[in-house]
Amino acid sequence: MNRKLIAGNWKMNGLRADLQTVRDVAAAINKTATAPDVLLCVPATLLAQAAVAAEGSALKIGGQTCHLQVKGAYTGDISAQMLQEAGATHVIVGHSERRTLHGETDEIVAAQALSAINSGLTPIICIGETLDERTSGETLKVIEKQLGGSLSGLTDAAAFVLAYEPLWAIGTGKVATPDQIAEVHDFVRRFLMGRYGQAGDAVRILYGGSLNPGNAAEILPISNVDGGLIGGASLKAADFLSICMTACALTE
Ligand code: PGA
Fold first, then answer.
1. What confidence tens digit (pLDDT) does each residue in 192-244 have?
2. How far is the centre of ligand 1, averaged over its atoms, from the C-alpha of 197 (Å)?
3. Is the C-beta atom of 208 inside 6 A of ligand 1?
4. What is residue 177's DSSP assignment?
5. Does 9 contact ligand 1 (Cβ within 6 A)?
6. pLDDT single digits (tens) 58-78
7. What share of the chain has pLDDT > 90, as a percent?
8. CA distances from 58 to 23, 40, 78 (A)
9. Which atom from ligand 1 is nearest to the alpha carbon of 163?
10. Alpha helices in the chain (DSSP H)
11. ∠ CA(167), CA(120), CA(73), 5° rounding?
């Protein structure tokens, strides 16, 4: 069993006052001997301060996207190196909101992931099907295509994390059933082992999409679910910590 990773994705939420949430999470996980790996991906404006707030604790801080280049004339963008220097250890790439709203393709996502790795960050590469794709029975085909494209050029299985996030479950309160989650996660595992051999077994595959304190105990024990990527429920320390504690109980 892989060590679980519980990752929060604050999206475009969080002002300076919310650094208290970072402090609360950092303090709580430090008291827990068998905590899973815990990460908060905060807005870029809070990253450096969040990293300071988490200092001395096991809590890690991450970014939410990065440009595929290290630097250059890309107004408004942020590079993996910048995130790393600000204190990030991880960065989410290919989140469906980036793919949909910013036109990020599998090819771009793979380049972003490589850039992250080259800058010393661990990319969390997101994949997932739309409701239409699921209802027309194309889920695994879509996932296979996204995996092939988004992992292109990534030769080291130890360098990245994957997150399966069905689009219809993100921010909707609709959670995939354990059977639906298991089917995709098992498929992803087989894909990874086919591509990377035994090293593919150690790649962490997170589930994301309306994961919350009420359903974590049902989702996190599913085979090949190595943690969660949590949006809404990561904004309140108590909710996020409750999910961390559920993961904790599973590793004891
Ligand atoms: P949600 O978001 O937990 O609010 O559904 C998950 C995500 O988009 O990463």
1. 999 999 999 999 999 999 999 999 999 999 999 999 999 999 999 999 999 99
2. 30
3. yes
4. P
5. yes
6. 999 999 999 999 999 999 999
7. 95
8. 11, 11, 25
9. 9
10. 19-30, 44-54, 80-86, 96-101, 106-118, 131-135, 139-150, 178-196, 216-219, 237-251
11. 75
Beta-strand relationship, 90-93 and 227-230? unpaired
The ligand 1 atom at the shortest distance from the C-alpha of residue 172 is 5
Ligand 1 mean position, distance from CA 72 (Å)? 31
CATH topology of domain 5-251: TIM Barrel (3.20.20)
Q: Which of 90, 100, 170 to mutate to test the pocket of ligand 1 (most atoms within 8 A of CB)?
A: 170
CA-wise closest residue to 54 among 207, 228, 250, 237? 237
Residues forming a β-bridge with 7: 39, 229
Ligand 1 neighbourhood includes 100 CB (under 6 angstroms): no
- Judge whether residue 251 has pLDDT over 80: no
Active centre residues (catalytic):
95, 165
Atom of ligand 1 at shortest range from CA of 210: 5
